[in-house]
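LAB NOTEBOOK - FOLDING QUEUE
OPERATOR: T.R.
BATCH SIZE: 2
PURPOSE: Compare the predicted structure-token outputs for two unrelated chains run back to back under identical settings.
PRIORITY: normal
REVIEWER: second-year student, initials M.K.

ITEM 1
FIELD SEQUENCE / FIELD STRUCTURE:
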Amino acid sequence: MSEPKPFKPESDAPTLPSDVVDALPGKFLVFDGPDGSGKSTQLKMFLNAAKGAGLKIKEVREPGGTEIGEKIRDALLEHLDREEMSLRCEMLLYMASRAQLCEQVIDPALKRGELVVADRFVSSTYAYQGAAGGIPFTEIDQAAEIAMQGVSPDATLIFDVDQETAASRLNPLLDRMEAKGAAFHQRVREGYQTLITGDPDRLSYLGIDARGSESQVFSNIVDALRERFVD
């Protein structure tokens, strides 16, 4: 059987090929990566393409996605004038938001056979509070087991670019996590790379080269999803 040709969008509004579309109902996908990786742009393009293909989608974001989670998001991402939040407090707040999201939104949507697409998930905790912050991955594992209660992504797409490119893409109005500085964000990137290299069979963490044009990166997404769910 011949190898499928890489998917190449033919217009400014990319579409998903039918073999990938057919594999996605009931799956849980996460879009993740360092700040400035282009994740948000590709997430929007993917959602538009998936909706255009007729897929029933539940879109969520982290932290947030529920009324309680959005309140936690405000506390986590705003610039605080009061005493700085401790690292473990930060990690556990992310997990608290995740627990509410899994129970209230993600698990019911998966049981209905919908495609769940999350803007960040536990992979962000490993990269930001773990690799960059210093919390051991074993502690994050323990907290995640309590928070997620068996809910886990079928694939996490991790967008990667060099640090200089990522910095050039950041919004000038930085939130608390984006404003932590170059050394911090280099450790974040290394944390994401650790997740990818620790998953050599590409079953959980899919590295996406995000250095090219928007259409090229979208093509990389389609190729990765096809390899994971179709081939």
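ITEM 2
FIELD SEQUENCE / FIELD STRUCTURE:
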Amino acid sequence: MNILELEHINKTYGKHQANRDISFVVPKGSIYGMLGPNGAGKSTMIRIITNIIAADSGVVRFNGEVFKEQHHQLIGYMPEERGLYKKMMVGEQLVYLGRLKGLNKVDATKKVKDWLEKLHIADWWSKKIEDLSKGMQQKVQFIATTLHDPMLLILDEPFSGLDPVNSNLIKDEIFELQRKGTTIIFSTHRMEQVEEICEEIVLINNGQNILQGHVKEIRQRFKENKYQVLYNGEASLSALNGYDVVEQGNGKLILKATQGQSPNQLLRALLDQGLEIHHFNEILPSINEIFIRQVQAS
């Protein structure tokens, strides 16, 4: 079942069409990547999903129903720009934000303490937001977004300002939330994070979705039949009919199949030459490479 369905979404500001006939679905329990260059229409799309603004046309369905006001309480949205009150103390602010999302004071206080402990910042309760670093504010913003146990969590650049240790800490919590049933929409410019975290993606450019699907399937779709081999021995490249040499040297060989040969055929041909193969793999394009290629072509 899908937790979110968007059908033919259009949004125009004056003469600028921010979203143009966008349709995609987000499966329940998935980590779903929403990608696109600056100005592509992602932020407008997120605001429509969260009902901050209304689409000019099209339908948004949440958990099988046309979006209603009460669905707000089931969504957590962490914007790229922080929305924290700088003069308030961390604990006081998080309890306040939790109560705005429907928690009573006792439950909100307990959940805040649990989250502060989980993210190793239990002694920050009485610190003011303005006294925290950018990365530390990001951890507080993450807690504020997840405090009410939303069904759908929308994270816009959640690792901004975080060092590698704290990035891994937040990443682990994202996977734990997914394990417990939360659906996560992940918006970022960091393509390596997309490959590591997301199961499916939609790529938006110039207000349109130009690519969508499972990450693994997309990488297979755009592969170029290139293979990398690490070996010992003397390779006779003239005997490898139907392959172009992309790179060779120091026991490394990158070949491109030009006649649709399978990986097994290439490996067999190399072994028949008496080579000692240490490593053999098909080179798949990264999401970053696909992203650049598709954006430039659209």
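REVIEWER COMMENT (ITEM 2): The domain at 224-297 is CATH 3.30.70 (Alpha-Beta Plaits).
FOLLOW-UP: none requested
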